[in-house]
């Protein structure tokens, strides 16, 4: 029997990290939204490592927060341990990471979705996407319900034709033992979406009661906890939370011998896995084969939750047969007698070629069809969530006939992520890294709110209350920078004694406080005694003011680079341009440009195969059209 | 792309009377103000007389015209320097302009800007596109020819260790918890020093390439009346004096080009080779030495009638210390006095010069020996084309010069104890600047290297 579950503005397929953000953004922007998930108990699941953030990923989480997303708040509610990575390095690469309680993360996120106005949640497998005249009409569930929608966001993660591989055994499955989505791939092919196959993997989960943690190095969280969400900057409960430790151990020669002896049983080395895996999370087999000289590899033991004994074995993902895995794990110091609860596995899945997307994440040629998350060829919860919120925002804006929100490479890591995926494309699951950003010093995690809160407010995801609080913080920062630049410190014994204490050269004439802060051996806090007019300020304000002063020169350099970059980004290319008709473009450039239809000359210049000469031709073409 | 201020020599490079250097872009006037000294006011559409000054020294007396945007050929602010012809002086002024903030224009770039700024009509546009394409194609042909050879290999070598260093830095930044050792500052410094050295070496080959392409820059020095003019005339095989003394031109460096056995000699007139004044006495040894920066060969003349003076000896040792090739010529051998010649020879011997050539310009004796000596010194066969890398492209030279500058800045940052990710900004710039020569993308290279060299993952 044909029946309908109703009419929606936006339907989101999948409720992982991308799906949840997409659904919340759309519903919060007032769109009638439905989210579908094969099994509701896997909503916002972490099928791999139980942690949020990390280098550059932590930046993404804070950017999502500044735009009005949920990931940071949910991470703050459910973390077990918090750490600011790279704190000994420059501010551009400080990165927040938390260990999360996997089950609590799911529960809290599910509750947030349940309580969200305009949002309906369904447990159902979507088997068909309905398209008429290249325009989205709706979706169909496996049970037979039709759901009408103006826009659809596909956020299927690794579920599309998911296939789990463990040694010689392989079977159809989504991650974490959940059913895969076997029918949707065909429907996507039917409507003209190109598909390809990627691979990833995850290590075993082991019962902590069978480990000897005393043999390992204990890894503590930070004493001073920095919350993820800017909304929680002053939240004392979060800052005083009791933390749980992780543990560090190592593989050894015996581990490597077990692996080498059984390499012929590894599906990767025997050729049974065809999907393309990421270089940055190789299986332990890969590591041992590729880095033969390395005597040991690090293994981090991370808790899955406060109320479970399951531990995640970071650094030892594998697709070796189960019995080999047990043998292998038991060679590791502290794991001699372990009982494995879930084996490590590799998983293959269908994903799309992200260069078929627009920067808004809408599929080219199918009106209203958006893609977000791992299905776009990315990897990682944070990368998925970042795309999710953008797809949700842009689906909503499309319905309202508004221009899509597109962040450029100088504004956010989200911009770098999406531009890399859409413009350059990827041949392996794409992971964010700080080295992918050209303007790392500007795109810091500490200033994500300064960069993006105004945008979040303008779009409608940041409340007036939060925005006003933000404006106050911004003003405090500006005033403090101004004050530090205008305060002159006169030479006197007190001052010079203090400078001497920090091995800083003494002063003979007056010097600006800001110039003292610039000295690498000094900082804002250590100058407290001689800064008589200093007022109590929040840590976040001090941090911004200090960075702005200390790194002024470099920031200026990057701003100049950004200005240059923007000039080409602002040379817009019409989507109707037929590049075959532009004289002077190379053949390869014509093909690529016709396929990708870049928005600007800047974007065009980043497409592989478009040379600087082609870029000149495009500039001339634009000028020519402007003159007509 | 259109925002930088560009400059180029707009007239054909030759020994014509006048050359024009064109500067276009918003910085044009600033650049002119930095290098051009005049008592007149620079106004749009006026031509102003003045001096091009570098390090307080006058390079040339020139005329500068200024066209204010949009009323100019390119539609941007344009300054044009009308200087005195000759490769050397024109190039020197261009370099000064580039050092003052302009970048070298690519072929067709002035026209391209003119078009983009609406200064050309549509029928011309097509032609410009064709022009740019034609230029780029030839360029890329030449470039790829260059790239298949030593240059790209050398640049790749130069870059490789920097990319590895960057990968090492990035891995410690992107994977802070893995047990890879942090990069030590002392290692960074030693690598940067090595790269500074290598880059300087490659840069210096530009000079060799220039000698092959454009000739040996020669200065004939010596006391007044020693016979410098006559020697020049003799070498040039004609008798008349060749000074084209345009009033108000620089008297510093005027060129005469002579060809000996396929080796081009550009004879420099270092402040009055033909003057009767004793340059050395007048402006001092040090200053005349400084003038020799552009010189590849000094022919130092001694008059056998007068003997050798202390100043001669001082000059000769300074020239030697500066590493400039030199040939000592003892002139007027037709009037030789044995005792003076012996003194000269023993004095020369004292400063380790034993191969002085004895000539008589007047009698045309020994001139062939001198020619042979020059030919031997600069014989093209000396340059091992197969193995020695020679930079001939000024774009490459500019990029190498920039790389050198960023290397120095990176080193500064390390010495200032800046965190390694800040230092990496400059190292990245070096790698990307070098990458421009061979057309490589740093960020991708670094990421590839991270995965190749380091074992990471879950």
Mean of pLDDT of chain B:
76
Lateral strand order in the biggest sheet of chain B: 3-4-5-6-2-1-7
Order of helices and strands of chain B: EEHEEEEHEHHHHEHEEHHEHEHEHHHH
Separation of the first and last Cα atoms of chain B: 42 Å
Domain tally of chain B: 3
Helicity level of chain B: 40-55%
Q: Short summary of the structure?
A:
Chain A contains 20 helices and 22 strands.
Verbal overview:
The complex is a heterodimer of chains A (628) and B (458). Chain A has 628 residues and is an alpha+beta fold. Among the domains of chain A are: 205-348, Elongation Factor Tu (Ef-tu), domain 3 (Beta Barrel), CATH 2.40.30.260; 476-556, Arc Repressor Mutant, subunit A; 570-627, DNA polymerase, domain 1. Chain A contains 20 helices and 22 strands. In chain A, strands 1, 2, 6, 7, 8, 9 and 20 form a 7-stranded mixed beta sheet that branches. The relative contact order of chain A is 0.12. In chain B, helix 3 (109-116) packs antiparallel against helix 4 (122-148), helix 5 packs across helix 15 (442-453) and helix 13 (394-415) runs antiparallel to helix 14. The model of chain B is unreliable at 130-145, 238-254, 271-281 and 383-388 (pLDDT under 50). In chain B, a hairpin with an 8-residue loop joins strand 3 and strand 4. Chain B is built from 15 helices and 13 strands. Chain B is 48% helix and 17% strand. With 458 residues, chain B is of the alpha/beta class. The interface between A and B is large, with 60 and 44 residues.
């Amino acid at each position: 029997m044909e029946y309908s579950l109703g009419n929606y503005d936006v339907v989101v397929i999948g409720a992982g990290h991308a799906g949840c953000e997409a659904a919340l953004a759309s519903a919060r922007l007032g769109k009638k939204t439905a989210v579908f998930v094969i099994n509701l108990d896997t909503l916002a699941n972490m099928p791999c490592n139980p942690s949020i953030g990390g280098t550059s990923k932590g930046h993404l989480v804070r950017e999502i927060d500044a735009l009005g997303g949920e990931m940071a708040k949910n991470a703050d509610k459910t973390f077990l341990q918090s750490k600011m990575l790279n704190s000994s390095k420059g501010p551009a690469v400080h990165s927040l990471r938390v260990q999360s309680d996997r089950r609590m993360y799911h529960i809290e996120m599910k509750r947030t979705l349940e309580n969200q106005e305009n949002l309906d949640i369904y447990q159902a497998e979507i088997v068909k996407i309905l398209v008429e005249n290249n325009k989205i009409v709706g979706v169909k569930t496996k049970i037979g319900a039709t759901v009408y929608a103006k826009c659809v966001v596909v956020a299927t993660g690794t579920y599309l034709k998911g296939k789990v591989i463990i040694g010689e055994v392989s079977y159809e499955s989504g991650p974490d033992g959940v059913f895969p989505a076997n029918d949707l791939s065909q429907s996507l092919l039917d409507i003209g979406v190109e598909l390809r196959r990627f691979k990833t993997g995850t290590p075993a989960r082991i019962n902590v009661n069978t480990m000897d943690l005393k043999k390992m190095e204990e890894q503590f969280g930070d004493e001073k906890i920095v919350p993820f969400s800017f909304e929680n900057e002053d939240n004392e409960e979060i800052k005083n939370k009791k933390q749980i430790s992780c543990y560090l151990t190592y593989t050894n020669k015996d581990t490597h011998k077990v692996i080498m002896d059984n390499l012929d049983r590894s599906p990767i080395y025997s050729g049974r896995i065809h999907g393309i895996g990421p270089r940055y999370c190789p299986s332990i087999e890969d590591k041992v084969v590729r880095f033969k000289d390395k005597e040991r590899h690090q293994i981090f033991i991370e808790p899955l939750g406060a109320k479970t004994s399951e531990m995640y074995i970071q650094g030892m993902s594998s697709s070796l047969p189960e019995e080999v895995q047990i043998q292998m794990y038991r060679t590791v110091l502290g794991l001699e007698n372990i009982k494995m609860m879930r084996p490590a596995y590799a998983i293959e899945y269908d994903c799309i070629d992200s260069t078929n997307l627009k920067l808004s994440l809408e599929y080219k040629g199918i009106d209203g069809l958006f893609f977000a998350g791992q299905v776009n060829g990315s990897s990682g919860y944070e990368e998925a969530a970042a795309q999710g919120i953008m797809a949700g925002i842009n689906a909503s804006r499309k319905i309202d006939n508004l221009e899509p929100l597109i962040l450029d490479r100088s504004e956010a890591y989200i911009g770098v992520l999406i531009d890399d995926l859409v413009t350059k494309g990827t041949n392996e699951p794409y992971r964010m890294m700080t080295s992918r950003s050209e303007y790392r010093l500007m795109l810091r995690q500490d200033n994500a709110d300064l960069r993006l809160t105004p945008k979040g407010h303008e779009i409608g995801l940041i409340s007036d209350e939060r925005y006003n609080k933000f404006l106050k913080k911004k003003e405090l920062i500006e005033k403090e920078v101004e004050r530090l630049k205008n305060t002159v410190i006169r030479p006197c014994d007190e001052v010079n004694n203090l400078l001497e204490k920090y091995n800083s050269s003494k002063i003979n004439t007056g010097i600006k406080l800001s110039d003292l802060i610039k000295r690498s051996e000094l900082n804002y806090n250590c100058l407290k005694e001689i800064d008589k007019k200093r007022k109590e300020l929040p840590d976040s304000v001090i941090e911004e003011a200090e960075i702005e002063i200390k790194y002024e020169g470099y920031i200026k350099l990057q701003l100049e680079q950004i200005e240059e970059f923007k000039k080409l980004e602002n040379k817009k290319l019409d989507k109707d341009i037929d590049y075959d008709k532009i004289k002077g473009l190379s053949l390869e450039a014509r093909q690529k440009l016709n396929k990708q239809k870049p928005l600007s000359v800047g974007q065009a210049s980043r497409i592989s195969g478009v040379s600087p000469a082609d870029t000149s031709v495009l500039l001339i073409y634009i000028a020519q059209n402007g003159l007509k | 792309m259109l925002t930088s201020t560009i400059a180029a020599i707009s007239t054909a490079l030759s020994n014509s009377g006048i050359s024009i250097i064109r500067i276009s872009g918003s910085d044009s006037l600033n650049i002119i103000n930095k290098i051009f000294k005049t008592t007149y006011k620079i106004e749009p559409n006026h031509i102003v007389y003045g001096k091009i000054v570098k390090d307080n020294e006058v390079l040339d007396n020139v005329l500068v015209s200024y066209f204010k945007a949009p009323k100019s050929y390119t539609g941007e602010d344009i300054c044009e320097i009308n200087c005195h012809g000759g490769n050397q002086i024109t190039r020197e002024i261009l370099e000064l302009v580039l050092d003052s903030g302009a970048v070298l224009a690519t072929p067709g770039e002035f026209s391209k800007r003119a078009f983009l700024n609406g200064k050309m009509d549509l029928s011309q546009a097509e032609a410009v596109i064709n022009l740019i394409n034609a230029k780029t194609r030839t360029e890329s042909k030449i470039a790829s020819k260059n790239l298949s050879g030593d240059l790209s290999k050398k640049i790749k070598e130069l870059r490789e260790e920097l990319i590895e260093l960057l990968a090492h830095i990035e891995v410690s930044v992107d994977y802070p918890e893995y047990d890879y050792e942090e990069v030590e500052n002392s290692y960074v410094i030693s690598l940067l020093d090595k790269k500074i050295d290598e880059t300087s070496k490659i840069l210096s080959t530009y000079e060799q390439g220039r000698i092959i392409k454009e000739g040996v820059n020669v200065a004939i020095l010596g006391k007044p009346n020693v016979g410098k003019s006559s020697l020049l005339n003799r070498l040039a095989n004609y008798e008349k004096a060749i000074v084209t003394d345009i009033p108000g031109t620089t008297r510093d460096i005027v060129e005469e080009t002579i060809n000996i056995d396929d080796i081009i000699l550009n004879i420099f007139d270092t402040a009055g080779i033909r003057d009767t004044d004793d340059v050395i006495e007048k402006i001092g040894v040090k200053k005349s030495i400084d003038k020799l920066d552009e010189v590849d060969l000094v022919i130092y003349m001694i008059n056998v009638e007068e003997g050798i003076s202390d100043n001669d000896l001082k000059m000769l040792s300074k020239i030697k210390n500066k590493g400039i090739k030199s040939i000592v010529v003892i002139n007027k051998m037709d009037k030789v006095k044995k005792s003076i010649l012996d003194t000269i020879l023993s004095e020369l011997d004292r400063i380790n010069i034993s191969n002085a050539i004895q000539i008589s310009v007047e009698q045309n004796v020994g001139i062939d020996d001198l020619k042979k000596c020059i030919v031997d010194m600069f014989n093209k066969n000396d340059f091992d084309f197969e193995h020695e890398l020679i930079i001939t492209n000024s774009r490459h030279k500019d990029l190498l010069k920039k790389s050198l500058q960023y290397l120095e800045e990176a080193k500064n940052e390390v010495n200032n104890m800046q965190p390694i990710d800040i230092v990496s900004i400059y190292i990245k710039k070096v790698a990307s600047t070098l990458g421009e020569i061979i057309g490589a993308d740093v960020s991708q290279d670094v990421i590839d290297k991270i995965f190749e060299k380091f074992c990471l993952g879950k």
